[in-house]
Amino acid sequence: MNPSDPAANLPPAPAASTGRLGAWALGAGLLAGIVAWLIGEAAYNAFRPPYAAQHVMGQVIMKASFADQSAADSKNATLAFAVLGGLLGTALGMAGGLARQSARTGAMAAAAGLVLGGVLGAVASRALLPVYFHALEVAQEALSRDLTLPLLVHGGIWAACGLAGVAFGIGLGGGRAVVVKAGFGGPHRRHPGRGPL
Length: 197
Hints:
This protein is mainly α and 197 residues long. The protein has helices at residues 18-42, 66-99, 103-138, 140-145, 148-162, 166-171, 176-183; strands at residues 52-56, 59-63, 190-191, 195-196. Helices cover 66% and strands 7% of the residues. A hairpin with a 3-residue loop joins strand 3 (190-191) and strand 4 (195-196).
């Protein structure tokens, strides 16, 4: 045991099986996903673009420009992904603490997960969504037939949100290795008398 490891100073916790830890993580992820979806639907048009009169086929209609619509859509998507990341980190942090039978550790990990997940979701959105909207502006018809880019953009943002899983490792009271593995969804090995490490 390494005395400099933060986990060495934690009180012993009941060991949890890998299957039980997986159930906690899966349950937390599903709960976070459902709640984030409900919030995202409720806030779907939180940001609205300005509308201006445009002449289309001899008629005057009120319509947003592509740039304004894209900016509003990007803000709405960023909000939705920040909520997803924040809720995922919160749920996984609390799940890690509860799996370790420590509500206090779970609450601290949940708070860390909320901030980390929200920031990761927002930053990844701001970095990747412009790639999608640029492609949409340049070749909208081609993009409608090929889902590769939309899936890559979504996958990149979802992967960033998933890094909030480090909160699960924090909730488990693990050291650096456990926290890093939790962020990447890796397995946890058990250490006698210390719970999942």
